Amino acid sequence: MPKPPSRTVYPVSQSDTGLMGYSPSIRLIAFDLDGTLVDRTTYIWQTLHDHFGSDPTRREQAKADFFAGRIPYADWFAHDLVLLRERKATRQAMLDCFADLHPVEGAKEILDTLAQRGYRLAVISGSLDVLLDHFFPSHPFHHVFINRLHFDESGHIQGGDATPYDLEGKARGLEELARREGLDLSQCAFVGDNVNDLDVMRVAGLAIGINIKHPDVAAAADLVLEQGALSRLLEIFP
Questions:
Q1: Which among 81, 99, 117 is the end of a domain?
Q2: Which of 51-65, 66-80, 213-227 has the weakest average pLDDT?
Q3: Same structural domain for residues 35 and 111?
Q4: Domain presence at residue 7
Q5: Is 56 helix (H, G, I), strand (E, B) or coil?
Q6: Are residue 90 and residue 204 in the same domain, yes or no?
């Protein structure tokens, strides 16, 4: 669905005015996780591989194979799990790695407030459920599209379920959420920060960039919020 050409884009330097009630038609707000709701990581996969010292050559080969179309996303996911298992990346060891990370300031309270206001909330992310559950254990999300890990009783990785809704699949994920909720895409917003959010930002009724990691994200967003400004969502979604 093409986006209307008449949107107002607020640059990163935009002052703290003019956002109240910007999106009265929005009923569902979907979020990226890494870098958007959880700070001090750009991609949790990269954070984990760096922390555990996974073989960088094999990591890059699998990535190249995926983007060249030689393997599907699920195979890339499974390959990364093999690398992490080799480096003893148990569930507890992952949680220890997460000690260097933290939720974006005010994220929990902001999400709870948006849910209380009646918005449907979702996560569409190529991140991991173990990260989401760690920082948002009693989250208010009505839908969660994310990669899921399976651990045995000792916390060792046994496998997992790859999300079909990462990268270009994020747009399909938002379309699926709209279908489930009986909404039009124009009633769905997406909040993200990086290039893997570009496709979904282009189909969302309202695309919001925050903590921007790439200039293409700023160009694709209808609104760009400065780093640490997640609370501005409470002005945008009254």
A1: 99
A2: 213-227
A3: yes
A4: no
A5: helix
A6: no
Q: Which two tokens stand for residue 148?
A: 């899921």
Query: How far is Cα 57 from Cα 173, in angstroms, rounded to an integer?
Result: 31
**pLDDT over 80 at 91, yes or no:** yes
Whether the pLDDT of residue 4 is over 60: the answer is no
Query: Are 92 and 178 in a shared domain?
Result: no
Residue 149, strand partner residues: 160
How large is the angle between the packed helices 73-86 and 56-67, nearest 10 degrees?
Answer: 170
Q: Is 142 helix (H, G, I), strand (E, B) or coil?
A: coil
Rounded CA separation 169/76 (Å): 15
Length of the chain: 238
Residue 6: inside a domain, yes or no?
Answer: no
User: Containing domain of residue 179, as a range?
Assistant: 28-40+102-236
Tokens of 100: 């260097």
Q: What is the pLDDT of residues 183-207, one digit of tens each?
A: 999 999 999 999 999 999 999 999 9
Nearest CA among 156, 136, 47, 43 for reference residue 91: 156
Residue 6 has pLDDT above 60, yes or no: no
Q: Are residues 84 and 124 in the same domain?
A: no
The total of structural domains in the chain comes to: 2
Which amino acid makes up residue 30? Answer: A
Contact between residue 132 and residue 123 where contact means Cβ atoms under 8 Å apart? yes
Q: Is residue 11 a part of any domain in this protein?
A: no
Nearest to 54 by CA among 83, 97, 96: 83
Distance CA 204, CA 187 (A): 8
pLDDT of 169 above 50: yes
Measured CA to CA, the distance from residue 190 to residue 171 in angstroms comes to 10
